[in-house]
Amino acid sequence: MTIWVNGEAREVPAGLTLAGLLELLRVGSGPGVAVEVNAEVVRRARHPEHRLNPQDRVEIVTFVGGG
């Protein structure tokens, strides 16, 4: 199925969870990573159960600290 990740179309397996997508993209799901699906933030605790649907729009933001 096709979903949008940070503005780019991607083909992913049907039934993929948000946690599965982050693993597929090699993005951690720990502190410093925020994910929204269709303009709604999805809490980290819900990543394993949140199933993606065709044409979902996913935005992944990684925060990096420094000084």
From TrEMBL:
Gene3D superfamilies: 3.10.20.30. InterPro entries: Beta-grasp_dom_sf, Mopterin_synth/thiamin_S_b, Thi_S, ThiS/MoaD-like. It comes from the Bacteria. Pfam families: ThiS. NCBIfam families: thiS. This is Sulfur carrier protein ThiS. The lineage of its organism: Bacteria, Pseudomonadati, Myxococcota, Myxococcia, Myxococcales.
